[in-house]
User: Fold ABC transporter ATP-binding protein from Paenibacillus rhizovicinus.
Amino acid sequence: MNVLEIRGLTKKFGDFVAVDNISLKVREGEIFGFLGANGAGKSTTINMICSLLQPTDGDIRIMEHDIKLQSRFAKQSLGIVPQDLAIYEDLSAYENVSFFAGLYGLRGALLKQRTQEALEFVGLGDKAKSFPKNFSGGMKRRLNIACAIAHKPKLIIMDEPTVGIDPQSRNYILSSVRELNESGCTIIYTSHYMEEVEEICSRIAIVDHGKIIAEGTKEQLTASITDTKDIVIELKNAVGSESDMLTGLAGVRKVSQEENVIRIHSDASVDNLNRILKQLMAAELEIRTVEEREPNLETVFLTLTGRNLRD
Ligand SMILES: Nc1ncnc2c1ncn2[C@@H]1O[C@H](COP(=O)(O)OP(=O)(O)OP(=O)(O)O)[C@@H](O)[C@H]1O
Assistant:
């Protein structure tokens, strides 16, 4: 079954097209990644799925129900972890979760039980009475998740849930996503962190300028990139501007440098590497290592758009 089906979804703000005719199916049991740079249109799409924004055009179906016609069903099937924290600082952690679960229709003993379960799930079981104003960024993010899951939705949408938190909380959140998925939830996970999407998502859509420019498993997406390759060269004692001499070289598409390490995105033909090395050696630079990297999602994005995800 498709837990989510989107057809021809479009959102215009005045003349600006933020989401441009997106169609998409997310099947039950998937962790579906929505990967795109800042401003690509991820949040606008999510806000339409959650009925927070009216589409300019297109249809959205959740569990085969049109969200316009069966809005109550859609609301109860959906859990939303918004990008901007949606928690009340002057309510306790327990009261926050209980408030949101109540909005989704839970009452009485079940409301109490699910509130406590959700807090325990995110590792805040012993913080039920504490106030989020005293929480770290990572704890607030986890509370935000608890608020979205207490009513046990079939589909959970997480909009960049790991922005601005420490690595430990990030790992905690990623393993919670997996656990929720194993317990039967379908998950849509948006991020501009390629590594996270690669790590947890079973299928990925890459969004750019409001359009889906590629979709598939990580393996399908990387296999589709056969005409480019990534080369990483480590120099000895670089001053930091050595990459300039490679920009514009035939076959070289993009170059970046961090201290001694130069990353080159180039056409796949073999002579490129020779040309690059000749250029560096002609400048009497000492080369420590040369490595050809397997394509990853960043390569896919770079090949399709000519930009890095975080340019
Ligand atoms: N209410 C609005 N009015 C006008 N433009 C908007 C509005 N909301 C979003 N936009 C524009 O639509 C585009 C897509 O924004 P959106 O927030 O969906 O991107 P995103 O992929 O979620 O990026 P981010 O990772 O920064 O959240 C951006 O150019 C943004 O400036």
In short: The domain at 2-223 is CATH 3.40.50.300 (Rossmann fold). The pocket of adenosine-5'-triphosphate is lined by residues 13, 16, 18, 36, 38-44, 83, 192 (CB under 6 Å). The chain has ten helices and 14 strands.
